[in-house]
Amino acid sequence: MEGVLTGGCLCGAVRYELKPGFRMRPYACHCTDCQRRTGSAFSLHMGIMAKDLTIEGELNEGTFVQPSGAISTIAGCAKCMSRIYAANDRRAGLASIRVGTLDDAKNMSPAAHFWVSSKQPWITIPEDIPTLETQPQSSQEWLQYVGPE
Ligand SMILES: [Zn+2]
Ligand SMILES: [Zn+2]
């Protein structure tokens, strides 16, 4: 997870570089919004500073108003629609990269699993990995679960 990380979309039209900087550890989110947005069982996120991310290629954005009223924006490749990162208007300066778009994600196992209350029943989480029924409720709690090592 150290150093410059690179990644991109499925078709290659979008490429990005993530400079070293403040990086949270990856986590899995099993909320129903992530399930629907990804069409999968959970999504794998890593919190970063948006300013550390340099993207080349045309992006499309989709927005969604969360129950809290926060506007979540997700950006992906305009051609192949691979989703690259998301941002939230309540967390200025931060973004959440979609870990599966990294060129090398094999060491990006989730440091925590959130929203296990809506986890699909066929997924078994290793016993030594922290879980929450919902998600961290404060910045301090976010750092406690998935803050930088
Ligand atoms: Zn693409
Ligand atoms: Zn989620």
TrEMBL record:
A Pfam family reported for this protein in Swiss-Prot or TrEMBL: GFA
Occurrences of domain CENP-V/GFA (ranges): 5-123
Keyword Lyase: yes
Domain of life: Bacteria
PROSITE patterns per record: CENP_V_GFA (PS51891)
InterPro entries registered for this protein in UniProt: CENP-V/GFA, Mss4-like_sf
UniProt KW keywords: Lyase, Metal-binding, Zinc
Family to which the UniProt record says this protein belongs: Belongs to the Gfa family.
Protein name: GFA family protein
Protein species of origin: Parasphingorhabdus litoris
